[in-house]
Specification:
It catalyses: acetate + ATP = acetyl phosphate + ADP. Pathway: Metabolic intermediate biosynthesis; acetyl-CoA biosynthesis; acetyl-CoA from acetate: step 1/2. The protein is of the alpha/beta class. It folds into two domains: 146 residues, Nucleotidyltransferase, domain 5; 184 residues, 2-Layer Sandwich (Nucleotidyltransferase, domain 5). 37% of the residues lie in helices and 19% in strands. The strands form two sheets. The chain has an eight-stranded mixed beta sheet with strand order 5-4-3-2-1-6-8-7, sandwiched between helices. Strand 9 and strand 10 form a beta hairpin. The longest helix is centred in the C-terminal third of the chain and has 24 residues. It is globular. The termini are close together.
Length: 397
């Protein structure tokens, strides 16, 4: 069974063709700058990476046609025709409360995804476009929606209901949804495999650190709490997002700076977080380099991140009535040695004992705590595309 995974964004389409007999990646890449000037195709096969090349992709229909063409190209492709693709798995950011698992896409599902678009106005519309184009280009091929929010639908009410007038939840479904669900699910499952223990017996905190960051408390394989909320702005500090702050700051800035609500939200989403505190930027490689040169604000930004992450680990240990393992994933989580060290060194009270030598390993599945560490910590490079392919395969079966 060959499954095509599609992640359709506002100006890009990422793709990956996976042979599920051995879960090997046959080809992957992305079409960039859709609708802008000078569209680019970035494509790689299992045996070769090709230089970026120009393509024509004025809209998502043309971009996905580029994807289909390159997969079947005699020189660049890996299949003879599109009929070899058994199904298409689509990343969909928001499923609202209607989807607690992946689903085969039909008219009713599409209607429900569209109704959730006001909860994710930047993400769901391009996700929908990707699905609709695939349905036209490959009629008869099953399409499956895998939702970022689905994994967190197991949260209890005390975790997802905000202490606002309850009518706002009833009228507008204002609640904690959580995101990065596919990544958190993969990290938890892979951690259990690394520990050689059933996931259903473990209490794991998964930490997805990247430009967007979130954490989840995964008890016995189910998410019972997560840091991102109604939107991906809540939670721990991120690359340019502030994370959780006193909401009264919004009104204060509007009055003191003469800013509109849109201008304040732009600051909170695009000019805060690691970039806002450090003044250096959102890339942790630059922050670490600047910190090592004596930049105190760069160090402060990473200390703030590490403190908040460690604080949530403690909170989630309480929420789960115990803790067996911590899983680091995402770009920062798998590569930034000093960030992991900064976080884990704050967790000695939970019995965490870091192995500094193992912690030097990056982007590989590895335990980074000592043998006598009461709570184990792992590096788990995320693979959301493989998770989407697995969900698609399992649903079809």
């Amino acid at each position: 069974m060959k499954i095509l995974v599609i992640n359709s964004g506002s100006s890009s389409v990422k793709y990956q063709l996976i042979d599920m007999t051995d879960e090997s990646v046959m080809a992957n890449g992305q079409v960039q700058r859709i609708g802008l000037d000078s569209q680019i195709l970035r494509h790689a096969r299992y045996d070769q990476k090709y230089p970026d090349r120009p393509c024509v992709a004025h809209d998502h229909a043309e971009a996905l046609k580029v994807v289909m063409d390159v997969l079947t190209d005699k020189e660049l492709g890996v299949i003879d025709n599109l009929s070899e693709i058994s199904a298409i798995g689509h990343r969909v950011v928001h499923g609202g409360e209607k989807f607690a698992c992946s689903v085969l896409i039909d008219e009713e599902v599409m209607k429900a995804i569209k109704e959730s678009s006001d909860l994710a106005p930047l993400h769901n519309p391009p996700n929908i476009l990707g699905i609709e184009v695939c349905q036209k280009l490959m009629p008869g091929t099953p399409n499956v929606a895998v939702f970022d929010t689905a994994f967190h639908q197991t949260m209890p009410e005390e975790a997802f209901i905000y202490p606002l007038p309850y009518e706002y939840y009833e009228k507008y479904r204002i609640r904690r949804y959580g995101f990065h669900g596919t990544s958190h699910k993969y990290a938890a499952q892979t951690t259990a495999e690394a520990m050689k223990r059933p996931l259903e017996e473990l209490k794991i905190v998964t930490i997805h650190l990247g430009n967007g960051s979130s954490m989840a408390a995964v008890r016995y394989g189910k998410s019972i709490d997560t840091t991102m909320g109604f939107t991906p702005l809540e939670g721990i500090p991120m690359g340019t997002r502030c994370g959780s702050i006193d909401p009264a700051i919004v009104q204060f800035l509007m009055e003191k700076e003469g800013m509109s609500i849109d201008e304040v939200m732009d600051v909170l989403n695009k000019k805060s977080g690691l970039a806002g505190v450090s003044g250096v930027g959102a890339d942790t490689r630059d922050l670490v380099d600047s910190m090592n040169k004596g930049n105190k604000r760069a160090r402060l930004s990473l200390d703030i991140l590490s403190y908040q992450v460690a604080k949530y680990v403690g909170a989630y240990a309480v929420a789960m009535d115990g803790l067996d393992a911590i899983a680091f994933t995402g770009g920062i989580g798998t590569y930034e040695v000093c960030v992991r060290e900064n976080i884990l060194n704050r967790l000695g009270v939970l019995g965490v004992k870091l192995d500094s030598e193992k912690n030097q390993i990056v982007n590989k599945i590895v335990e980074i705590t000592r043998e006598d560490s009461r709570v184990k910590a792992y590096v788990i490079p995320t693979n959301e595309e493989l998770m989407i392919a697995r969900e698609t395969r399992d649903l079809l079966k």
